[in-house]
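[Automated response] Your request has been received and processed.

Submitted sequence:
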Amino acid sequence: MQERGRTPRPGPHGQDGGGRRPVARRPISPRSPLEGRQLWRIGDWGGASEQIGRRWEDVGVACLDALIGQERIGPDCLPYVPMRSLVIAGEPELAAQVQAHGKSHADAVLVGVQGERSVLEPVDFKWTLETANPRQVGAEVLGELLTEPPPLLASRLAEVLAGLPTPDDPAHIDGIFLAPDSVANRVHLAPTGPLDPAWAALCPVDGPAFFSPLTGWDVAIALARSDGMQLRMLETSERYYRLGAGVLGALRRLQSSVFDESLPEVDGPALLGQLRRERRLITTGEVIAYFDRALSARAELTDRLRDVERGGYPFGRFREDLAARGAANADDRRSSRMYGQIMKTLAQEMRAEGRRLRAGGRQDLAVLSELDGQRARWLARGRALLDEVLASRPAASSS
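Generated structure:
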């Protein structure tokens, strides 16, 4: 293993893994600052973090390419020159194999030369350095991954090392996190932050260009205009994108029933404008506070639906029915999987019945009450599904 004299720093909240403490789910008021973890929470009503992460993996490749041909610190603190890169995250089949391999890994590997030896440097795309754990891009982790690599990774690595010196014995060095050049990421680096700058490379990012392809950006623009804001800087663009994605996600949920299999597509800006007029929501804070209350009420309906589904065929009844049929011990893992299989089918049928009742003009709460009143029906159906599963087991074992 080759290291470059870096000093690992503890992650956020004093944890080495960069883990986060659970976020308190307090109601949002119209005067809430809408910052930090609360802003992330709002954005994730519409999957903002996931969309940003995927987008950064795509955009980050161009930043990675900019490092090729530029001298970097390599083994023994001497320079090496990256010649090529292998982007694991950019190839779905390769990424799936590496993920299934079960070992920690970075998103990409820089491949270069120092004198008469090849060098491998892991690189991980991080939108925020708050979640950066130096071990993830450490030489030791890279070595563990490549000791017995998945077949496709071994093949791709052989391709990028072809023609370079010592392709069968490259040096492994500590790598870097590739992150946007934002105020938050600069603050996170030493001397004021917990992460040694040697563990990171910051890349300039144009905010509007980065966020404009993402779902919810049109709602972000509508919110910014209502606040008299222009989206030019990366930080402002990210703030309003998270708000816009969250508002769009909330609108889609509130336009659907808890029994629906998927969320509807909606015209976010138009629907938001209509809602603001009807509810007299003047400020962005008032908009977010309204959706926070509305989504809390919907979450209660979703919890109620799950209670009704579980009440249709309780696990205790399932165990009694297994025993009555002389089947295996209801406490073993196989029986638990069987119950899960039965309940998945039963829940699908209950939700289909819920959609049918909803089509007649009833509201979710009334439909939930009616489904709960049909427990005898669902109990009989659960037992029938159990009999079907038990009947199929001898055939499956004899095939």
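Summary generated for your ticket: Residues 313-398 form one domain. DSSP finds 15 helices and seven strands in the chain.
If you did not submit this request, please reply to this message.
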